[in-house]
């Protein structure tokens, strides 16, 4: 990709209303629940299939600039429990980002097993499907893991596909490809769920200040 000659000057003015500039990500804003989650994860005696319930909060953040690059986005927290298990089954935080000028979508992921990723894709404002991907070893849209995971459960790629439905709900399916130590074939760690809105999103902080004036 080519970068502009001037990498310092920020866009001006910037619209403080994040929700109005979120493109396809506007359909993700809010608080969501889904109880029909399905997980396939690696265990010593083979793939383990589990069901789970999930709560995701996705809240608008203020517009962000990298010099001339303008991004609008959401901060998210995913919390997942499996039935009959008190301890968290999966936890994840990060940002969803949208660059209106190019249609670039990014998802950052941080998982408390010592793993982070930056996944990317492209979409149009009214698209009903979003796909983002990250690949281990890429400096741009890659995956970084703790030394133990690198050797025992090497994560080679991550792909998330989201579909928005007519009733306002959305569903996802995600494939995390793992090379498990001692196994010759890659393991497809798959997760899917359908989410229904339980609360509307907040206004982003800057917009709250603007609206109070
Ligand atoms: C809904 C989403 C997800 C759920 C419910 C989930 C759940 C699980 C579970 C239950 C295990 C087995 C843990 C164990 O045996 O101790 C596991 C393993 C693993 N997951 Fe996920 N996971 C999800 C998404 C992800 C994502 C997005 C990544 C990375 C991009 C990831 C990376 C891993 C890795 C590397 C392991 C192997 C480590 C191990 O088994 O100890 N997971 N996951």
Query: What oligomeric state best describes the polypeptide chains here?
Result: single chain
Which ligands accompany this protein? protoporphyrin IX containing FE
Beta-strand segment tally: 12
> At the third CATH level, what is the topology name?
Lipocalin
Separation of the first and last Cα atoms = 41 Å
Commentary on this structure:
By secondary structure, this protein is mainly β. It has a single domain (19-212), classed as Lipocalin (Beta Barrel), CATH 2.40.128.20. The chain is built from 2 helices and 12 strands. Strands 1, 2, 3, 4, 5, 6, 7, 8, 9, 10, 11 and 12 form a 12-stranded antiparallel sheet that branches. The longest helix has 8 residues, at 205-212. The radius of gyration is 18 Å and the shape is globular. The termini are far apart. The site of protoporphyrin IX containing FE has 21 residues, from β1, β6, β7, β10 and β11.
List the keywords.
binds protoporphyrin IX containing FE; 55% strand; Lipocalin; globular; 2 helices; mainly beta; single chain; 213 residues; twelve-stranded antiparallel sheet
Q: How is this structure best summarized?
A:
The protein is mainly beta and 213 residues long. It has one domain: Lipocalin (Beta Barrel).
Topology:
Layout: E1 30-43, E2 46-60, E3 64-66, E4 69-81, E5 90-99, E6 104-111, E7 115-122, E8 129-135, E9 143-145, H1 147-152, E10 153-164, E11 170-180, E12 187-199, H2 205-212
Antiparallel strand pairs: 1-2, 1-12, 2-4, 3-4, 4-5, 5-6, 6-7, 7-9, 8-10, 10-11, 11-12
Bound molecules: protoporphyrin IX containing FE (HEM).
Protoporphyrin IX containing FE is lined by residues 39, 41-43, 52, 80, 89-90, 109, 111, 115, 117, 149, 153, 155, 158, 174, 176, 178, 189, 191.
């Amino acid at each position: 990709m080519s970068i502009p000659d001037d990498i310092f000057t920020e866009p001006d003015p910037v619209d403080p209303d994040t929700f109005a500039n979120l493109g396809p990500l506007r359909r993700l804003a809010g608080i969501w629940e889904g109880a029909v989650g399905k997980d396939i994860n690696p265990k010593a005696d083979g793939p383990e299939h589990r069901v789970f319930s999930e709560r995701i909060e996705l809240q608008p953040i203020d517009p962000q600039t990298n010099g001339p690059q303008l991004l609008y986005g959401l901060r998210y927290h995913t919390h997942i429990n499996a039935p009959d298990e008190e301890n968290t089954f999966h936890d994840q935080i990060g940002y969803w980002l949208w660059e209106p000028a190019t249609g670039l979508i990014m998802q950052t992921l941080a998982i408390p097993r010592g793993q982070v990723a930056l996944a990317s894709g492209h979409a149009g404002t009214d698209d009903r499907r979003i796909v983002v991907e990250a690949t281990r070893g890429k400096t741009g849209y890659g995956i970084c893991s703790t030394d133990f995971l690198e050797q025992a459960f090497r994560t080679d790629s991550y792909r998330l596909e989201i579909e928005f439905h007519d009733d306002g709900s959305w569903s996802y399916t995600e494939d995390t490809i793992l090379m498990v130590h001692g196994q010759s074939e890659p393991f497809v760690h798959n997760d899917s769920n359908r989410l229904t809105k339980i609360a509307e999103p907040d206004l982003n902080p800057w917009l709250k200040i603007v609206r109070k004036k």
